[in-house]
Amino acid sequence: MKIKTVEVDGKQYAEIQDGKPVYIEDDGKEVAFDAVGTRNTITRLNAEAKSHRERAENAEKIAKAFEGIEDAGAARKALETVANLDAKKLVDAGEIEKVKGEISKAFQAQLDEANGKATTFEQQLYAEMIGGNFARSKFIADKLAVPADMVQATFGRNLKIEEGKVVAYDGQGQKIFSRSRPGELADFDEALETLVSQYPHRDHILKSSDANGGGARDSGNPNGAKGNFGGSKADRVAAIKAMTANT
């Protein structure tokens, strides 16, 4: 990684883009380095590390209260026995179990209902956050020759919702981070661009000018993005389905 320079009156100066110095990565991609954002990220990560350390220290203090208890199951059973002995003063032990069963059934019904609502909500949230990003993607509109729903069918499995945010993972299961904002996760379009660049059949889904740039080759179709991939939307959808079915 090296800084990009321009020559003015025989002198070399760093190229600036939006107030940020431009660097050239090993793969030739130019990235405007956000020094302020990087510093803020380092500060935030240091604060998070301190918070994790403090939580670990508190956990160790709590654990000391249970020193000497090697069998957690036996300890729990002993506590239940004591609870039942106290309750026997009021009702027979058999009645206690009956009451416990009724309470358990009622609670389970409420739990099942809550789980059902949570599942529905998660599905709606996924459809809006994941599907909505594909539908509104400028990268798809500008760079890809296939419709957003086909792109989602191919790359949707690489996206998850974590803590209310869309997080992208590459083919090795690693989170995709931003090149221009070190330490920060890539936004949707930047992550999708990375996923497409790693896709073996990217030449088939990129628009012709992008598929032919950067030394890209189409080993599976000697005509590149011609034929069905250059036809109507229906032709492209059928072609991409046939292609992905064989991978």
TrEMBL record:
Q: Which domain of life is it from?
A: Bacteria
Q: Which Pfam families match?
A: DUF6651
Provide the residue span(s) of the region labelled Disordered: 205-232
What InterPro entries does UniProt report for this protein, alphabetically?
Answer: DUF6651 (IPR046593)
| Positions of the DUF6651 domain | 113-221
Protein name, per record: DUF6651 domain-containing protein
> From what organism does this protein derive?
Pseudomonas laurentiana
For this protein's source organism, the top of the classification is: Bacteria, Pseudomonadati, Pseudomonadota, Gammaproteobacteria, Pseudomonadales
